[in-house]
Design a protein that fits this description.
The complex is a heterodimer. Chain A has 13 helices and no strands. By secondary structure, chain A is an all-alpha fold. By secondary structure, chain B is an all-alpha fold. Classes of the chains: A mainly alpha, B mainly alpha.
């Protein structure tokens, strides 16, 4: 009997270190950061309670609005282009392509790279002095100009370009797996009814991809909100504050501008943004009764 | 997907196939171009890069930039090259991957084969931790690492990476073990086998695919991490990604593009090799993390 009771306890004992770590490093940290966001912390945490003052200051900062606007531009283009390109490439690769096994890894390898490497590569590629513009000039197209990375209004789009390069292959792989999972009986039936390939994709297959679209959206949206390294390596947030995102904003307010209270409140806003996307998604995925 | 009768019978179709292949190859070029530019320019002398074309092959082949990036380039303030940081990364990645994988396997085993009341709440809490923006953890984590006396050390970074990798490793093993027949576990239990015995003898022998997926996933994520490295690293623990960024952005005088490119490839090499050797598993890991996330 005694042995049995011990056996009953072991599973929970095994789980408890991980659970303790996560409770502290995730949930207690969230509460602590939330608390800090209500204090007058500057260079170091301090505990003078100021209510929602930091949030008020935050929403009055042009710098923060710039970061949010950039996130809106970056996030929406990143999600839409990656999804469209990913679906497009997946459909092309699904046409019984010879050499698919050769092409697929080429489309996908950027995902294995660090954003710092991607940023470094694209920084020089987009640099008008030595990159694409210079190359075009060398080839004789002297009027060619491509200096977006130096342009305050256009620099954020270079972040989009590099990020799409990095992630679109991954979205392609998700869609390809989805396409391969479509029941071939349904397609055969449609073909027998005389439906064309285009119709089959448009009316049958793509609508069946809805869960993949949803997964891709969730993954890309949360990557976009977390984006930090790529901006640091590609533009450093500049020129000026032109490519600042919430993640870089948080870092610089907390650690270089000594405005920890404001930094903490921006982190809380980021968390709220991500959770408002992730929690409904996880809830619908994990709902009891749904087969996983 | 398409029927045999629709493939390549008429000239129109053949034209369409040619177009299809052209588009696919063009995209391959698009994905390969930045890598090509990095490789080609990492073996050119600096003059050639400045005066020449970034796409042309080197007229004068040199490995000088690679040697410099590895052992003598200015990283931050010290002319150490990337070498010490490469080993910092290795020393950080190996234990972090090992510990988080073992814990994830045990967690997944408990959550599927030893279910208890409230286990789905536990799993939900673990799962949600995969998605938090790490900015939320930076300030308190710095405090805790300082409190534990491991701020700026590799040990500290290992702890951080284990904690924030647990969600994914647990998720991977949980999904994998969920499909494993529970009857086998129950039968072994009736035969008197204990918790660890069942895990070692019954589940572990058939776990190699998910172990590979998890190890690759954790290796790539931790090797590629920048945020934690830059926040909690010190000279003795700064990882490769941070060193690369310092190398590229700190050089005050002449920008040695060729050295930067060589350094970028050095930083990318371990994950690229893993990807080339076991790309299949890599994709599976991404899918497991994404589709079932």
């Amino acid at each position: 009997m005694n042995r049995n009771r011990l056996q009953d306890l072991i599973p929970r004992l095994v789980l408890s270190p991980s659970m303790a770590l996560i409770l502290i490093f995730v949930y207690a940290f969230i509460l602590y950061t939330f608390y800090l966001s209500m204090t007058d912390s500057r260079m170091l945490p301090s505990y003078g309670f100021v209510g929602f003052d930091n949030y008020e200051k935050l929403w009055n900062l042009r710098h923060w609005w710039r970061a949010l606007t950039n996130l809106a531009i970056f996030g929406s283009l990143y999600i839409v282009v990656c999804s469209v390109l990913g679906l497009f490439l997946a459909i092309l690769l699904d046409q019984k392509i010879r050499g698919e096994g050769f092409l697929r890894p080429i489309y996908l390898y950027p995902m294995a790279l660090s954003f710092i490497v991607t940023g470094t590569a694209w920084k020089w590629f987009l640099d008008p002095g030595i990159g694409l513009e210079n190359t075009m000039h060398q080839w004789g197209w002297t009027s060619f100009a491509f200096a977006w990375i130096k342009d305050r209004n256009l620099a954020i789009y270079t972040v989009v370009i590099a990020a799409i390069w990095q992630s679109s292959g991954f979205v392609m792989a998700m869609f390809l797996a989805g396409l391969r999972g479509v029941d071939s009986e349904i397609i055969k039936a449609a073909q027998m009814d005389g439906a064309s390939n285009v119709t089959i994709y448009r009316r049958i297959i793509i609508p069946m991809m809805r869960p993949v679209f949803l997964s891709a959206f969730v993954v890309l949206a949360h990557l976009a909100i977390k984006s930090y390294d790529l901006v640091i390596a590609l533009t450093g947030g500049g020129p000026g504050q032109a490519t600042e995102l919430p993640a870089t904003f948080m870092y610089s307010y907390t650690f270089t501008r000594n405005q920890m209270g404001i930094g903490a409140s921006s982190a809380i806003i980021m968390l709220v943004m991500i959770f408002s996307i992730i929690i409904p998604y996880l809830y619908s995925e994990l709902r009891p009764g749904r087969q996983r | 997907m398409s029927d045999e009768k629709m493939v390549g019978t008429t000239t129109g179709n053949r034209l369409l196939r040619a177009l299809l292949y052209t588009v696919l190859v063009l995209f391959a070029v698009y994905y390969l171009l930045p890598l090509y530019v990095m490789v080609v320019n990492s073996v050119k002398p600096l003059d050639e890069i400045r005066q020449g074309n970034m796409l042309s092959l080197p007229a004068l082949f040199t490995l000088e930039p690679w040697a410099k990036a590895w052992s003598s380039a200015q990283v931050g303030v010290q002319p150490t090259g990337l070498k010490p940081y490469f080993f910092n990364s290795i020393l950080m990645v190996v234990p972090a991957v090992a510990i988080s994988t073992v814990l994830g396997a045990l967690n997944g085993y408990v959550l599927t084969k030893w279910r208890f009341r409230g286990d789905d709440v536990v799993f939900g809490l673990i799962l949600l931790s995969c998605f938090i923006p790490f900015q939320i953890a930076l300030i308190p984590a710095a405090r805790i690492l300082g409190f534990l006396g491991i701020a700026g050390t590799t040990t500290g970074l290992v702890l951080i990476h284990v904690v924030y990798g647990l969600g994914f490793t647990t998720l991977f093993f949980r999904n994998y073990y969920a499909a494993f027949p529970t009857e086998l576990v129950r039968a072994a239990q009736i035969d008197g086998a204990g918790f660890f015995q069942i895990f070692r003898r019954i589940l572990l022998p058939s776990s190699s695919p998910i172990i590979v997926v998890t190890v690759i996933w954790q290796f790539t994520n931790i090797w590629n991490d920048f945020l934690f490295g830059v926040s909690f690293g010190d000279f003795d623990s700064l990882p490769m990604t941070v060193a690369l960024n310092n190398l590229v952005s700190s050089s005050g005088g002449v920008k040695e593009y060729n050295v930067h490119f060589a350094g970028a490839i050095l930083a990318a090499l371990p994950t690229l090799i893993v990807y080339i050797v076991s790309g299949r598993y890599f994709v599976r890991g991404l899918m497991a993390g994404a589709v079932k996330g």
